[in-house]
Structure prediction request, 228 residues.
Amino acid sequence: MLMYMRSTSNFNFLNTSKPEIDGVNRRVLVFGSDKAYEKALKLLIESSSRYFIRNIDPEFDLIDNIQMCDPGLLLYEFDGDIQHLSAIRRGISQLKRRPKILVVVKEEHLIYTDKLLEIGVDGAIIKGLEVGKIVDVLSSLENNNYYLAQKIVNYLVIKMTKNGKADLTDREHEVLILLGQGLSYKAIADKLHIGLETVRSHVKNLYAKLNVSSKAEALEFSRKNKMI
Prediction:
């Protein structure tokens, strides 16, 4: 279990006199047990001169730290302890000013994705995969956008799978299979005795459901997840 006392940070404050990083929204509180990962995040975040890290005081629990630091963003390393994160979310909901919560998830903890969304986090990234664009992710949250890593989105799509069809209709699944066989839209229309525009509509719908933007991506995703 991830404990408050394990979250001591060795971070130094960035010079907060710079006007471009002034303000609550630019304060980031990092909570986690992997100090090497924390250090990498710190360097990337502070090198942007847009955000700055606040230290966690080990004498106090996380909610108290949030009240004292008043961050705009909480970067939370999730270790599989749903109850702890739920308690933190409830505690934050009672605060006058509530920071956005970005959860860092290990791949083996993707099974908790549904619960993380139920708790009400503002975003989630995969640990180690998106370190290089962490500043862009924080900026997206700051602008009130929700952020989910592509791998998490793909996992959710697979979770929606019904009989291997990823919640596709029977006709959409037929179209997907025929695309996999190399048929053109015209050939698919002829084979299924439907109009060409109807085929295009089915393709558009299945692209949206699979969260892809091209035939190649749709087929790669479908084959990888044994949908066709």
Summary: The two ends are 40 Å apart (CA to CA). The chain is about 45% helix and 10% strand.
